[in-house]
Amino acid sequence: MMQSMTGFGKATCELPDKSVTIEIKSLNSKQLDIYARLPNIYKEKELELRNLVSKYLVRGKVEFTITYEITDIASSAKINIPLVKEYYQQLKALNNELDGDSKNSLLQIIMRFPDALVAEKEELSEAEWNKLSKKIAEALEGINSFRIQEGAALERDITGRIQKILDLLNDLAQFEAERIDRIRDKINDSLKVNFDQDKYDENRFEQELIYYLEKIDITEEKVRLQNHCSFFQEVLKEKEPVGKKLSFIAQEIGREINTIGSKANHSDIQRLVVMMKDELEKIKEQLMNVL
């Protein structure tokens, strides 16, 4: 099943003292490129996170972000009592010296001072990590579902364009007989204009003409193009990632189309070749985002 490399997954983990949000975004890339933005408390698990992401997402530029919001302030910060007392004594003495009357507001002022509140050192417990890991896996499953959905749309578009190339290839047949006759007549007319009939060997001329027509024959290119397109359609149905393989096949398809164009020497065939090239370029653009 074809998958896109574009996707988004999100999950929220509710913990006793905080709410953790996991967001994962991915774009197309030649290999797996993970950029992780993690709070300090989860830095120690970065390698484990990268291994987990690589199991779910084979390829792509992945931005992995974890943020959290404290929901229990009491458990996250403590009053620095000795420092607050020192602040209070100094401000009280200053207030008395200046004959101030704002003793009741001193504590409110002090609590805004630096280090009046001390954040407790965060430690990651095994229970918290186990719960968070499940939510990370949920977000990764979400991004995979997104990729599969996008991949299905890509597959429909690419399949239609490959079929269009095959249809255009079949349309070539109606011009081939006329093309050969036109080339033969053109050479004959040129020969008659420039040489007397008794000055050249007609049998030798026919041999040379056959040799020339064989060199511009496009039968082999048509057969190979048909085979490449059929192989492309088969690979589309494979279960493992097929993006790179399809890109290689698309290059081979392009070579055969170009060779047909260079040998054509016929305006209607050239027009069909241009249309095939247009479809192939659109396929290549889509393949850049296929896993």
Word description of this protein:
This protein is an alpha+beta fold and 291 residues long. Helix content is 62%, strand content 14%. It has ten helices and six strands. It has helices at residues 46-56, 73-76, 81-97, 106-110, 126-171, 173-194, 202-215, 219-236, 243-264, 267-287, and strands at 7-14, 18-27, 32-37, 60-70, 77-79, 117-119. The strands form two sheets. Strands 1-2-4-3 form a four-stranded mixed β-sheet. Strand 1 and strand 2 form a beta hairpin. Helix 5 runs antiparallel to helix 10, helix 8 (219-236) packs antiparallel against helix 9 and helix 9 runs antiparallel to helix 10. The longest helix is centred in the middle third of the chain and has 46 residues, at 126-171.
Name its key features.
two-stranded antiparallel sheet, rod-shaped, single chain, Ribosomal Protein S5, domain 2, four-stranded mixed sheet, 291 residues, alpha+beta, 62% helix, 3 domains
